[in-house]
Backbone:
């Protein structure tokens, strides 16, 4: 199976697809990116010319239905992740989708449900770069008991001053981004892989700039918060506090893991990791083995899973459902003032 040719069609040729994912696919022996579709014919053609992709489609359903491909990479904004994924699976294609799995938790569950009806097809999501470099080291230290009992996790994401002149763009547009907010899903995904899932959520959120101008100069109402505080508990029993903000200038970003016997801290990407044991007065740097950013490995992982007839290890659709549920729960709690318990009752059973 190692020589199985993989022929990839790309739906959505944005910046990350063009700069990272398509070239990574093209670098793998026996893999060919054979077609591309984007929001406009012109933008798809530019990507094809730049990267030597043979065929351009005006409409993504035609690309997905083509017999020329056996795998689809989805690089669009979240509003197309569900329809493209389901169409691809139902026509026998393996699927790798960009992160921010779906518009909301229900869409994510539907994607998972369809994937389970096609167990012979590989599905996966592009992982976050958050905590990626040191993720395995963090997981090993915590699982080996280096902290003692894990008691509390603190996350600080965002260190910029408020910029009221920043333009309205797609991540502020609920029509294309859904419930996805700031980097909430990214950190949820990373922590899920380090210590497991979340069990409760309470959140407070604020929009400090109620409108911004879009690319045409028109004012657009902003409903996506630029500051969110979240507290709750993890399934392992630890409490957590997470702050995501675009208004906390000069804040120290990072993730802290507090245990009964020690503390671990990292920057948001775990490029550097530090620890201190009970009785020590300062942190000592912990060696993190050098490795490529996990986001750059996902194309190879996806291809290997297809050839070895297995599923990807990260990020699975099951993990994606969990971070979409968490993200949606944050919004529900912020609106209602109520604690939300996870997983939500409508999760599709395994």
Residues:
């Amino acid at each position: 199976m190692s020589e199985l040719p993989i022929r990839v069609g790309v739906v959505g040729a944005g910046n990350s697809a063009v700069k990272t994912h398509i070239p990574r696919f093209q670098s793998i022996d026996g893999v060919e990116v054979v077609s591309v579709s984007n929001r406009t014919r012109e933008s798809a053609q530019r990507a094809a010319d730049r990267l030597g992709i043979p065929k351009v489609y005006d409409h993504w359903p035609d690309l997905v239905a083509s017999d020329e491909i056996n795998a689809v990479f989805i690089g669009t904004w979240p509003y197309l992740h569900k329809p493209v994924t389901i169409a691809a699976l139902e026509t026998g294609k393996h699927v790798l989708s960009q992160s921010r799995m779906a518009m909301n938790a229900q869409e994510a569950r539907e994607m998972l449900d369809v994937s389970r009806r096609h167990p012979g097809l590989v599905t996966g999501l592009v992982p976050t770069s958050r905590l990626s470099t040191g993720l395995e080291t963090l997981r090993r230290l915590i699982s080996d008991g280096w902290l003692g009992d894990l008691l509390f996790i603190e996350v600080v994401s965002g260190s910029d001053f408020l910029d009221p002149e920043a333009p309205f763009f797609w991540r502020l547009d609920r029509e294309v981004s859904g419930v996805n907010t700031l980097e909430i899903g990214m950190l949820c995904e990373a922590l899920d892989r380090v210590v497991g899932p979340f069990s409760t959520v309470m959140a407070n959120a604020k929009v400090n700039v109620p409108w911004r101008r879009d690319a045409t100069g028109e004012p657009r109402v902003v409903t996506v918060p630029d500051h969110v505080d979240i507290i709750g508990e993890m399934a392992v029993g630890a409490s957590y506090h997470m702050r995501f903000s675009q208004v906390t200038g000069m804040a120290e970003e990072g993730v802290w893991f507090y245990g009964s016997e020690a503390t671990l801290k990292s920057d948001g990407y775990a490029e550097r990791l530090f620890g201190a044991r009970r009785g020590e007065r300062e942190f000592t740097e912990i060696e993190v083995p050098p490795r490529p950013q996990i986001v750059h490995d996902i194309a190879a992982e996806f291809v290997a899973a297809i050839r070895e007839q297995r599923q990807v290890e990260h990020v699975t659709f099951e993990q994606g459902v969990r971070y979409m549920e968490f993200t949606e729960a944050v919004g529900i709690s912020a609106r209602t003032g109520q604690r939300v318990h996870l997983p939500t009752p409508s999760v599709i059973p395994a």
Observations:
- The radius of gyration is 21 Å.
